[in-house]
Amino acid sequence: MTGDDQTQGAGASRARGKALLVIMALAVFVSVLNNSMINVAIPEIRVDLGVSASAIGWIITAYALVFAVGTALYGRITDFVSLRLTFLVALAVFACGSLLCALAPNFGVLVSGRVLQASGAAAIPALALGSVTRLFPAGQRGQAFGTVVSSVGIGAAAGPIIGGVVVSLGGWQWLFLGTLGLLVILAGAAYRHMPDTDPSERAKGTLRDFGLAGGLFISLSAGSFLLGVTGIEQSGLASPKTWGPLLIAVLSGLAFARHVRYSPRPFAPPALFRNRTFVAACVLALFAQAAFLGGGLFLIPLLMIEQHGLTALGAGLVLAPSAFAIFLFSPLAGRLSDRFGARRLLMSCLVAVLAGLVFLSAQADASPVVIAAGLLVMGIGFAGVMSPNANAASTALSKDIAGIGSGIYQLFFFLGAGMGAATVGAFLAFRKAAAGSGLNPLYTASEAAAPYSDTFLLAAVSTGIALLAALAIRMPGRRYRSAGQ
Fold first, then answer.
1. What is the pLDDT of residues 318-352, one digit of tens each?
2. What is the reported pTM?
3. b/e per residue 329-362 (b: at least 16 CB within 10 A)
4. Domain ranges of the chain
5. What is its main location (predicted)?
């Protein structure tokens, strides 16, 4: 190969990488926007469709259940099927679900549409991580992950604001029609520009090699776990609606572990779960996401609306600075993890998340501006967690298992979101019923906000567990690797 050919090949590879990043970043933005803007429409949907307060939560729960389960399955599918084909089919399913939601005449059809939406949207995070792992060499993935992750922040920031404006002007149905329009544009861009893995780069497997039994076990375990932790808030820990699904989750998890260990064609290779960095990254993703989403994005709107009387739009504006911080700092954090390794960066940023939660616990009765400042510290810290942690997990993934590895990692990440919201909601309800002063000696304000102060501390405990997981991360940066080469 001549020098010109090599230069052209490198240029083509960079062009493929840029196209991939743009498309995946847009896809992640659409999926996050779809969820964050729906939350502010729930009160109007409840009135419009005549839904009870106990049932309306299924708009969120049904979506989260299918989404969490689907990430692992889509990840495995991309070890056998074209990335671009999988992505386009998933977008089509997502679009059909959005149309069904927009036209829903009753609540049952709306929930069905949300399930269909999640069935397609679940492909996006798994494909984003897996495709970056396949198409970018180690040492360049951190910046790529950071670019994709940054769209999470802008989607989370824009969602409540866009949702509030659209609902006030045209009704909640237009939220789903807007999502449908964005998906059509995205599908056209993906069809024209999205790079695809060469067949020689994909696993030479057949359906028999898929490990269907393992896929069913891990799906049942994840779905039952999320259903169980959701039941803690709705029915209490002693209810069969809570411990029943949790028991099924444990038994299905044990069945999955046995399948991985003894099956000749496992759903995931056993070596993946013997890799300390990969397992630690999954645990860190679970608890860090639970802390940030539960103690931040879920709890603070409740605090702003219930204690300060803000509107949904006002609560969204309190969240906006932290979301923009994620958008701005995620690419930088990814580049730093490429250069210096992940562990020190992860630990430093988790300490920032922990400091933000302790501050919010001490200032739970403060003004919205002060609360926004505490959440901003959390957002900056969380920006330094997501892309470096995904980068660390990717070091355990060869190209032939990039799909299933990324799917399992994302499964833990989104289970953390469901776990955080459910446990925070249940603990907040418990503390409101118990009343009394706060546990944090730094909190000296009224008892009215004391339950929120204590709930921020619960999220801080989750952050502490994530910090312990970070100790097991082993991902040297280029500076250290080059010394041994």
1. 888 888 888 788 888 888 887 877 888 999 999 99
2. 0.79
3. bbbbbbbbbbebbbbebbbebbebbbbbbbbbbb
4. 15-193+267-479, 211-266
5. membrane
